[in-house]
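Q: What structure does this chain adopt?
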Amino acid sequence: MVCAECREPIDPEGGDDSRYASVKEDYVCWSCWESDSQSASTINLIEDKVVKIYVGDLDIFNEFGNPVDPHKLNIKREWVSSDGWRGHYDTTIEGWDNVLTGWTTANWGGDPIGERKANFNEWADAMLAGEIYSPCPVAIVADPTSNVFSTGIAVLVKKKDIKSFRSWLSDDYYNLDSSLR
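A:
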């Protein structure tokens, strides 16, 4: 048996040197799986509780390392190239739309860009901590970019919930949108 990604030999019994990859729907070697998981996008699905899902090119799994069926939520991830070396991932969920999109970075203090991004970061942290509650399910997607200091962000809701979500955010919508620009 060979790795579905690099084509190197792997143990057909699974063993320690391979893992089933749900996107590939085949076995990959540990090295390919580890590389893919280290550059995975993260979906924080907020409903009654927060469910964390990691989305790679080879596999989709939860925070406990258990496989997630990519067809259940119909999650797709693609690389969007801005030139030969730069770009970002874009992760989508079928039936959900972006209500906020852009990028964020850490706030190191004294940096006007980091300070502008802090507004969104604090809101997202409060959502994930259960300090504020949306009237509908929300997915906060963090996608890797070619810039190690930035993370692509998308806040998604089901298409039918867009109007109620934006109404719930009210004036905060424009502040959060500006924060991600």
